[in-house]
Amino acid sequence: MSRTDSFRSRLHAGDNLIGTFLKTPTSHAAEIVGGLGFDFVVIDQEHAPFDRIATDVALLAARATDTPALVRVPGPEAILSVLDCGATGVLVPHVATVEHAREAVALCRYAGGRRGFATSTRAGGYTAVPMWQHIKERDEQTVVVAQIEDPQALDQIEAIAAVDGIDSLFIGRADLSCAFADQSKDPPAVREAVEKICAAARKAGRPVSVYIGGESEATWLRSLGASMFVLSSDQGFLREAAARGLAGVRKAVAVV
To answer: Does the active-site annotation cover 28?
Structure first.
């Protein structure tokens, strides 16, 4: 079984999965990251300039390296198109109610859901995959991640986590920090929210997904039960490497 096809089962098995955000609308970042052995990528339609065509190209590049690719959609209206283009699943922002969680699941499922049917797509092998095989495989393998980033969601977090078909809770710490308007380095309300979300996920048997900037955050969040880590982004890696290279050469030529 390919890495893409087995991603959902690995997520539910609690495997430590490490991926990154893709912010640059090209095929190159997906190829490079996939070639390095990252477990997955998240194409960011919400905060980066990915239109449908750019997303389609990035998904093609991810498939070329057998790299599972989720898409963070800007809203429910984008879910069908990214799944048709071959996304492994979706990361849905601002899931703040049980109803929103149920809607996200329904839009990703054929059986008992509301996903529009087509096999003339990349996901359907351009009609090469028989109808009921396609329905079975997509329903079994498509990943639905609910991003929890609103204080409102904390009031019903256990119910959201328990929604059938939600595969993981992604903790949006930056948005929670903005909502609580606490400018301190480690806002107590955000830390408390993180712990509450992790507890709800454990109770419901859902994996926890998180964004991390580096190793120390990974260690802390792993201790709370997180197993799916989104490390930086293609832009972050570019900036970090460019800054390091620039500083190194400036230091070298200064001593000549």
So the answer is: no
User: Annotated catalytic residue: which of 12, 47, 94, 134?
Assistant: 47
CA-CA distance, 236 to 42, in Å (whole number)? 14
- Give the pLDDT of the chain (256 residues) as one tens digit per residue: 799 999 999 999 999 999 999 999 999 999 999 999 999 999 999 999 999 999 999 999 999 999 999 999 999 999 999 999 999 999 999 999 999 999 999 999 999 999 999 999 999 999 999 999 999 999 999 999 999 999 999 999 999 999 999 999 999 999 999 999 988 878 999 999 999 999 999 999 999 999 999 999 999 999 999 999 999 999 999 999 999 999 999 999 997 6
Fold of 3-254: TIM Barrel (3.20.20)
Domain positions in the chain are 3-254
